Structure formats: structure tokens, C-alpha cells
């Protein structure tokens, strides 16, 4: 029984920190070009990609977009021909940016509201891993006020303060059965907040090459008074005190990105980004519960994640003054070591392909659309805590749409 409860609560941090929940959907132009943007001047999404670049923008921006995300994962338990699939659920990561500064000034102010982490997964209550996970709804919203200054005509810098608000709702079955034959269930609900910063440098050259460097700090997100709700047989309720809460601090890792942009002609824009995520900070999870029993104790669970890299490239072609065509792709390494793969984030190395187009509706209004296909390479694992063993195969499909008004 004690092992069961320790596993139940040890699972929650994974849903927050696994690379599979790192949502890189921060601008339709950037998505269309393979998620490149650190070394480019494109639109208000530079608030996130590189705060140093926004003072170089020739116009002010107000823009917003959404990228509905469909996550489809299959699981084949080891030694069987069974197949379990997630239900069709659509998450809706969004972005909103504003950039403003007086005309011909050397500074601009920016504001970004975006969702860098999130997930919506539903395996149902009849699959082989129901004691690990039934469903998950995870959202994280970052709010980033920003300032950028043009030091010279070719060099600018910028930085922003980050406030993070996140929520999570997770359900899983408990291997306890009532007299009526109903399986027990646990629901974990909580919200938390944290603080960090984002800073960047942007450089323009005379040969059509632009260079950007961006650093987004670690954000330690503190969850207080998260609810642990149990539906168990009456005779076992003393082991599951209700109401009960927990507290924990979760390290969302820092990221460092370098990007290059190149304009070989008036019609073509090429870009490359390399991103490093410091997942190594995620070593141990600790939970402090307000009510303990002989079964339910505070937990300390090792995770020992490793750092992750992603490599991105893309291109844009200006067909005419109104129509822009985009394409790109990339590859990302997983942060989850063998033995820690879970159905919340059946993570592995992955590749992605993207495309998009932009259309100038008017001189001041842009419409941008994008589409991404992401293939998570199949991975056969046995989780060291839950002992869930089998092969995960995952595909992700992401259309996107945004509007940008500029003046």
C-alpha cells in the first residue's frame, strides 16, 4: 500500500517537466520556418524569441494566435499484441504579443503572454496503464513585460521579467476495489506560480546576416495547497485523509538559444536556430503533504534528467508583396533517461516538419497560418517506479493561425 501511494504522488512532477510538455508554439511565422526566430526580425514574437530584437523592429505590433494541438499516442504492452490509444483531445496553446515605441526612437516596450508548457491527454479508464494515468490537463501561462534598447544601428539588447502561472488536473486509478466492483480513483489538482527572466542580444551585419542570442532563465514554480482527492472504499478512507493538500517547488529549466538569419535576396529569408535546455537541474522531487498517515508520507523521488538539444532550420519565400511561403523542420533530443518514460509524456528523440504561409490582408494587417507534424520516435521502456512496460508510439499534429496589426 505504501509503495502504491508513493508512486501516485511521485508521478505529478513528470507532467510538468517532461520535454513532451515543452510547447514550442510561439509564433506562426516562426513555426512555419521550423521554429526559428532567435536571429530574425519578423514580428512581435521577438518578445519571446529574442527581447533584444524588438527595438530593431521598424513598426509597432499587436498580435495574437492559437495552435490547436492534437496528441495521438499508442501503447503496446510488452509480451502482448494489445494496442491502447489516447482519446482525441485538442489542446489550445496560445500567444499574444504587443510591441510599442515612439517612431524613430532607440527603445521599445514589449509584452508577451504565451503558453510554454501544456498537455491534454486521455487514455481512458480501461487501458493497461490506468494505475499510472487515466487523464491529464496541464496548462502553464507566462506573462512577460519587456524593454529593448538599440545601442547602435547594428546592435540592440533587451530583457523581460517572467511571471508563470500553471494549473494541472490529473486522474489515475488506484488498485482498490469496492464491494460493487468499482476501482478506486485519485485526482490531483493544483496551481502554482514562479518568476524568471528572458534576455537577448541582436546583431545586424552589412552582408545580410543577422545574429541573435537569447537566454531564458530557470523558473522555480511553487505549488501550494494542491488538492489530492481520493475515491476509495469506506474501510480504507482513514489511509487517504480528506481533505488533504501538498506543497512542492518544481524547477522549470533555463534555455539558451543562438540563431542566424540570412537574406540572400529580397525574396528569400533563411534561418537556423540551436537550442539548449538545462534539464539537468531536474534531479529529485520532494513533496510535503499537510496530512500524513502510516501509508502516506512525504516523498523524495530521484529523476536525474539530462540536458536536451534541438536543431531547427527554415526558409521563407516572398512570392509577391502580399504572399509569403514558409517551410522548415528540425530534430530534438529527449531529456528523459531510460527508466523514467511515462504515459504523461511518452518522450523520445523526435523530428518535426513545418510549413506555412502569410498574407498581407491590408497594409497594416497580416494573416499567418502554419502546420506542424511531429514524430516522436517509438520507445520501448519499463518504468522503474510503476513497472509499466511496453512500447510507446506518438504523433503530433498542429495547425495554427494568427493575426498581426502593425503600424
TrEMBL record:
Subcellular localization, as worded in the UniProt entry: Cell outer membrane
Top-rank taxon: Bacteria
InterPro entries noted in UniProt: OMPP1/FadL/TodX (IPR005017)
SUPFAM superfamilies named among the record's database cross-references: Porins
A Pfam family: Toluene_X
Keyword Repeat: no
Residues spanning the signal sequence: none
Keywords on record: Cell outer membrane, Membrane, Signal, Transmembrane, Transmembrane beta strand
Membrane topology value: Multi-pass membrane protein
Record family assignment: Belongs to the OmpP1/FadL family.
Protein name per the record: Long-chain fatty acid transport protein
Origin species: Mucilaginibacter pocheonensis
Amino acid at each position: 500500500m505504501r509503495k502504491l501511494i508513493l508512486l501516485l504522488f511521485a508521478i505529478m512532477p513528470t507532467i510538468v517537466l517532461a520535454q513532451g510538455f515543452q510547447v514550442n508554439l510561439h509564433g506562426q511565422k516562426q513555426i512555419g520556418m521550423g521554429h526559428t526566430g532567435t536571429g530574425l526580425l519578423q514580428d512581435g514574437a521577438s518578445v519571446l524569441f529574442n527581447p533584444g530584437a524588438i527595438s530593431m523592429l521598424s513598426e509597432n505590433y499587436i498580435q495574437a494566435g492559437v495552435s490547436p494541438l492534437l496528441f495521438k499516442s499508442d501503447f503496446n504492452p510488452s509480451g502482448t499484441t494489445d494496442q491502447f490509444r489516447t482519446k482525441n483531445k485538442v489542446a489550445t496553446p496560445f500567444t499574444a504579443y504587443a510591441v510599442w515605441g515612439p517612431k524613430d526612437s532607440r527603445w521599445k516596450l514589449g509584452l508577451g503572454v504565451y503558453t510554454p508548457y501544456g498537455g491534454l491527454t486521455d487514455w481512458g479508464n480501461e487501458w493497461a496503464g490506468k494505475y499510472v494515468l487515466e487523464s491529464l490537463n496541464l496548462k502553464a501561462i507566462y506573462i512577460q513585460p519587456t524593454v529593448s534598447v538599440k545601442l547602435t544601428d547594428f546592435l540592440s539588447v533587451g530583457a523581460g521579467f517572467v511571471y508563470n502561472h500553471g494549473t494541472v488536473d490529473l486522474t489515475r486509478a488506484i488498485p482498490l476495489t469496492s464491494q460493487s466492483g468499482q476501482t478506486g480513483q485519485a485526482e490531483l489538482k493544483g496551481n502554482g506560480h514562479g518568476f524568471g527572466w528572458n534576455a537577448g542580444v541582436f546583431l545586424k551585419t552589412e552582408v545580410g546576416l543577422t545574429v541573435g542570442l537569447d537566454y531564458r532563465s530557470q523558473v522555480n514554480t511553487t505549488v501550494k495547497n494542491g488538492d489530492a482527492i481520493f475515491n476509495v472504499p469506506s474501510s480504507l478512507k482513514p489511509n487517504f485523509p480528506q481533505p488533504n493538500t501538498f506543497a512542492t517547488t518544481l524547477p522549470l529549466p533555463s534555455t539558451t538559444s543562438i540563431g542566424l538569419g540570412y537574406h540572400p535576396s529580397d525574396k528569400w529569408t533563411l534561418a537556423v536556430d540551436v537550442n539548449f535546455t538545462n534539464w539537468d537541474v531536474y534531479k529529485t522531487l520532494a513533496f510535503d503533504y499537510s496530512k500524513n498517515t502510516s501509508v502516506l508520507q512525504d516523498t523524495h523521488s530521484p529523476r536525474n534528467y539530462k540536458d536536451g538539444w534541438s536543431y531547427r532550420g527554415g526558409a521563407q519565400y516572398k512570392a509577391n508583396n502580399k504572399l509569403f511561403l514558409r517551410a522548415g523542420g528540425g530534430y530534438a533530443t529527449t531529456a528523459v533517461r531510460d527508466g523514467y518514460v511515462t504515459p504523461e509524456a511518452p518522450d523520445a528523440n523526435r523530428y518535426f516538419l513545418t510549413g506555412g504561409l502569410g498574407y498581407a490582408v491590408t497594409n497594416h494587417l497580416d494573416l499567418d497560418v502554419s502546420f506542424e507534424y511531429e514524430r516522436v520516435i517509438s520507445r520501448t521502456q519499463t518504468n522503474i517506479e510503476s513497472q509499466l512496460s511496453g512500447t510507446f508510439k506518438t504523433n503530433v499534429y498542429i495547425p495554427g493561425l494568427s493575426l498581426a496589426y502593425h503600424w
